[in-house]
Write a structure and sequence with these properties.
26 helices, five-stranded parallel β-sheet, Rossmann fold, single chain, 3 domains, alpha/beta
């Protein structure tokens, strides 16, 4: 840390500095981010871009009485450093360390938690109104990136804020022309390209020359010139849009000039009670201060540890991951079927759709951070005979639940849902776990839901999905590296609602293990451990959550003394629940053990640690199964002894 940052423990310390000391402090904050994230990994380029903005906000506003609401939260590392967390900053995104996003449980300065986009203005508006109703003379400040402005939720909030009007609300538009991937859409063009339009800049120069000449001649036109410049700027720039929504617009302002930011925010504080709400348009650059990140902010958006001098270097041959298998298969199928189109909500690189886009640019649609629109747009395409594939993270598809029901399910439209990042996702934590998709989609009539046990099965599920004509169909797959099984050269269509028996010791067994998706790998390893303990076992890869392979599952349930289901989804209403419902409907009163994610939000850690903590590792599945069997009075002679450890059981 630097000499100024050493003395900053809370924003009140920051406000003791002179304005001239703020720019050097910004460098120290930026250096700390570079030092820590290069060693630990995390969100990088977006936080380098908000250093001056964070310093100016805490300097000009009386935080925490004035309340800052950060959109998404992965741009809030400088904010964390300035609000009492600099000495723990090295724990960012680590198990039991600081969250990578804002968190109300972590600090009184985090007034609203967020990992999804476009939420800040709505939350800040509610906070502003709450303070007003409580008679508190303070401000609520929403800091929203221009990528998040592509979400309809942000405009719902702007519309409501201008109508109230919320004079104690300030919205900071952090304009860096990027979300994760480059921003898209008409709004982005309007906000950014008007500022560099030749006509606007030429007229501005000519107007300035005219005003200077008139003033040189002694004409008293200072007030006229000021109003004329303002009117012209509002006509050519985003000011007119926000002014029409009831906001006073200020900007654009250089977001890396901390003095200019402090001056602007101080002015807004003095004027907002009379003229608010205000929207302050700030121009920043992702990766600011680190040349490699400035040149490639996408590559440096989220990073693993790297050498500062060398930057991110290739770590050897790239290992195959699930998103690439999905994308490669979709491209392969699209070459044969012109009906296939791909849709993503601001995540072309994250979902692999960027590969499809290179091959079929006219058949690829990035709709911005607007998942509800993505699904409804796909539904419209489906009515015209196309095969829309909506590739959306499991956690982000939650935002389009109504569209899944009202616009796709009820009309039984053949929309394909490719749900990336299903299950446990690691350091992104509670806001990004793909923990609920099996439960929330299983509740919707007409939906078919699949999950592959490995990458080979995934490619067949992609073909199955795009060829299915009966209505909506969804498949989920995990984040990260594939299992490493051989890949079939020919793609096949899986029979609808059919599972498979993986291994069976006999026609009648002690325990039946049923897995879905990635959890099938856990089932197979647990089965081997149970066999080593002398138990007779059978295992099933369900493949389908809806419809279930009722015939196969019931047949093996009747041959078993205990049924164990394993899934990386909440146990509330998930795959295991569907098995219990099936057994109950057939009057089959059989002991069952439902293993999955608990009825709780899973905090940030590595996926390996998260699986240990939630019991979704083979050793814990085995130990819980044995305990249940022993409760039923069933014990066997083990060939190998199990030894308990702190987090799991291991073979000894």
């Amino acid at each position: 840390m630097g000499k100024r940052l050493d003395k900053i423990n809370l924003p009140e310390d920051l406000r003791q500095l002179k304005v001239g000391e703020l720019q050097p402090l910004c460098k120290e904050v930026r250096d700390l981010i570079l030092e820590v994230i290069s060693k630990k990994g995390g969100h990088f380029s977006s936080n380098l871009g908000t250093v001056e903005l964070s310093v100016a906000l805490h300097y000009a506003f009386e935080t925490p009485k004035d309340k800052l609401v950060w959109d998404v939260g992965h741009q809030a590392y400088p904010h964390k450093i300035l609000t009492g967390r600099k000495n723990r900053f090295h724990t960012i995104r680590q198990y039991e360390g600081l969250s990578g996003f804002t968190s109300r449980a972590e600090s009184e300065y985090d007034h609203f938690g967020a990992g999804h986009a476009s939420t800040s203005i709505s939350a800040a508006l509610g906070i502003a109104e709450g303070m007003k109703l409580g008679g508190l003379p303070h401000f609520a400040v929403a800091i929203i990136g221009d990528g998040s402005m592509t979400g309809g939720l942000a405009f719902e909030a702007l519309n409501n804020a201008g109508h109230i009007p919320a004079k104690n609300l300030v919205v900071i538009l952090n304009d860096n022309d990027m979300a994760i991937d480059p921003n898209v859409g008409a709004l982005n063009r309007f906000v950014n390209h008007a500022l560099v339009h030749p006509g606007y800049n030429r007229l501005r120069k000519e107007l300035k020359g005219l005003m200077d000449a008139m003033e040189h001649c002694g004409m008293p036109i200072t007030g006229v010139a000021s109003r004329l410049r303002k009117s012209m700027k509002n006509f050519f720039t985003p000011g007119i849009l926000f002014e029409c929504l009831g906001f006073r617009y200020m900007g654009p302002i250089d977001g890396h000039d901390v003095n200019a930011l402090v001056e602007a925010f101080s002015f807004v504080k003095s004027e907002s009670p009379k003229e608010g709400p205000y929207l302050v348009h700030v121009l920043t650059k992702k990766g600011k201060g680190y040349k490699l990140a400035e040149e490639n902010s996408l590559k440096y958006h989220g990073v693993t540890p790297f050498e500062i001098e060398e930057g991110i270097k290739p770590s050897g041959p790239k290992k195959a991951n699930y998103q690439d298998v999905f994308a490669d298969t979709l491209v392969r199928l699209a070459k044969e079927d012109p009906r296939i189109v791909a849709i993503t909500a601001a995540m072309p690189s994250g979902t692999g759709i960027s590969k499809f886009q290179k091959e079929f640019p006219k058949r690829t649609y990035d709709v911005g951070i607007a998942e509800g629109h993505a699904v409804l747009f796909a539904a419209g395409l489906a009515t015209e005979g196309f095969r829309p594939v909506a590739a959306i993270y499991s956690t982000f598809l939650q935002r389009a639940f109504d569209q899944c029901i009202h616009d796709v399910g009820i009309q039984n439209l053949p929309v394909v849902f490719a749900m990336d990042r299903a299950g446990l996702v690691g350091a992104d934590g509670v806001t990004h776990q793909g923990a609920f998709d099996l439960s929330y989609l299983r509740a919707i009539p007409n939906f078919v839901i699949m999950a592959p046990k490995d990458e080979n099965e995934l490619q067949h599920m992609v073909k199955t999905a795009v060829q299915y004509q009966g209505g909506p169909i969804a498949f989920r797959y995990p984040r990260g590296e594939v299992v490493g099984v051989p890949m079939d050269k020919e793609l096949t269509t899986l029979p609808l609602g059919k599972g498979e028996v993986l291994k069976a010791d006999a026609s009648a067994v002690d325990v039946l293990l049923i897995g879905i998706g990635y959890a099938v790998q856990t089932v197979l390893e647990a089965q081997a451990l149970l066999q080593a303990q002398g138990y007779k076992t059978a295992s099933i890869n369900a493949r389908f959550v809806k419809p279930l392979d009722e015939k196969l599952i019931l047949e093996w349930c009747e041959r078993s003394k205990l049924v164990v289901t394993v899934e990386e989804n909440t146990v509330c209403g998930g795959f295991g629940s569907s098995i219990l419902e099936l057994m109950h409907s057939r009057g089959l009163n059989l002991p069952a053990l439902i293993l999955g994610l608990p009825d709780a939000f899973i905090d940030h850690a590595s996926p390996q640690v998260q699986r240990k903590l939630t019991g979704l590792v083979p050793q814990t599945v085995t130990s819980k199964t044995i305990l249940k069997l022993e409760e039923l009075g069933l014990t066997r002679s083990p060939t190998t002894r199990l030894k308990s450890t702190e987090n799991s059981l291991v073979l000894n």
